[in-house]
Specification:
The chain is of the alpha+beta class. Helix content is about 20%, strand content about 40%. The strands form two sheets. Strands 8-7-6-5-4-3-13-12-11-10-9 form an eleven-stranded antiparallel β-sheet.
C-alpha cells in the first residue's frame, strides 16, 4: 500500500485536480481552492497506515443491530448486539472464535475467500476510490465523537447493466467493501450514497445508503494507533 504522501506529492495532486476541474472543488475567500478529491486522498493514505483503532456501529434497523470493535492489523475483536443477543467474534489470522452470551466459544477456520481485508486498509481503499470519482462533493462540517469533521458525499448512479459507467468504488474487492456492507454496490437498482467524514487527514466515519432506504451501515473510527492487543479467548 502507498505510504503517506509527501508535501510535494500532495501539492502536485492538488494542482493536477484543480487544473482538471476535479471533484467537489470549492473555494473560500483568501484561502485558495479546496478540493474534495485531494483531501480524501490524503485521508486514505494516512488512515491505511494506522496500525490499530477502535470502531463503533450505532444501533440501526428494526432489530437495533449494533457493534463495537477494535482491530490491530488484520486481527479484530467485535462485540455485536441485536434482537436481544450479544456475541463476541475474535479473528486472529485464519482462526475465528465466536463466543455467545452464555460464555461458550466455538472455533472456526476462515476459508481464504471469506477473509476480510485489514479494516484500516479497507477504509483507506474505499476513501481513495471515492477521491477518484468526479461526483464527490462537500456536504459541510459536523461533529463526530466530539471532533469537528468535514463531510463528503459520493453519489453512485444506479447500474442496470454492465454497460453503465462504473465508479472506482464498485471495482473494489468484496473483502474490503463488506466491512461497510457495500459489497453489492455495483448491482443496486437505485442510487447509492457513500458518505465519508474526515478530520486531521483521518477517516472518522463512513456511511452507505441506498436512496430512499435506511443506511446500509454507519461506522465511526477512533482511538487511532491505541495500544490494542487481540488475543484468543481464554482456554482456546
Amino acid at each position: 500500500m502507498a505510504g503517506i504522501a509527501t508535501a510535494s506529492v500532495a501539492a502536485a495532486v492538488v494542482a493536477a485536480v484543480s487544473l482538471a476541474g476535479g471533484p467537489g472543488q470549492r473555494s473560500a475567500p483568501g484561502t485558495g481552492p479546496v478540493d474534495a478529491g485531494s483531501v480524501l486522498l490524503a485521508a486514505a493514505e494516512r488512515t491505511e497506515q494506522v496500525s490499530s483503532l477502535r470502531f463503533s456501529q450505532p444501533p440501526q434497523g428494526g432489530a437495533a443491530f449494533s457493534a463495537e470493535g477494535e482491530v490491530r492489523g488484520a486481527n479484530s475483536r467485535i462485540v455485536s448486539k441485536g434482537e436481544g443477543v450479544t456475541e463476541t467474534t475474535v479473528v486472529i489470522g485464519s482462526d475465528r472464535y465466536v463466543t455467545s452470551a452464555d460464555g461458550t466459544t466455538r472455533k472456526e477456520t476462515i476459508p481464504d475467500d471469506q477473509k476480510l481485508a485489514p479494516f484500516a486498509r479497507a477504509a483507506g481503499d474505499l476513501t481513495r476510490a471515492a477521491s477518484q470519482d468526479r461526483n464527490v462533493a462537500v456536504v459541510g462540517t459536523e461533529d463526530v465523537r466530539g471532533v469537528k469533521t468535514t463531510h463528503y458525499r459520493l453519489t453512485l448512479p444506479a447500474r442496470t447493466s454492465a454497460a453503465d459507467p462504473a465508479s472506482p468504488v464498485t471495482e473494489l474487492p468484496a473483502t474490503e467493501l463488506a466491512w461497510f456492507e457495500l459489497e453489492g454496490v455495483d448491482s443496486y437498482s437505485a442510487p447509492v450514497q457513500v458518505d465519508i467524514w474526515v478530520a486531521d487527514n483521518l477517516v472518522r466515519r463512513i456511511s452507505g445508503t441506498v436512496q430512499n432506504q435506511d443506511p446500509l451501515t454507519t461506522v465511526e473510527f477512533y482511538d487511532f494507533n491505541a495500544p490494542i492487543s487481540i488475543t484468543a479467548p481464554a482456554g482456546r
